[in-house]
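Why do we care about 3D structure at all? Because function follows from shape, and shape follows, mostly, from sequence. That is the central idea of this module. The next example makes it concrete: a single protein chain, its amino acid sequence, and then its structure expressed as tokens.
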Amino acid sequence: NIGKYFYRNKGDYAKAEGLIIPSVTALAELLGENSFTTSQAYKDLGSFYQYKGQLDDAEKYYQKALELTI
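And the structure:
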């Protein structure tokens, strides 16, 4: 998601998050929770939260991604 990186790198985390969350939700709805692409989206969301220092949120989404890939 280009917007995620653009806004994240500018430090505008609210705008980046506003692009990421709807994207992940849309992927989960369109492709299903068990899709590899959905799993990757959750991993990216975890990475975003890790970058922001929100480690509890990061862990939650990393764990979700991991559960979907097993």
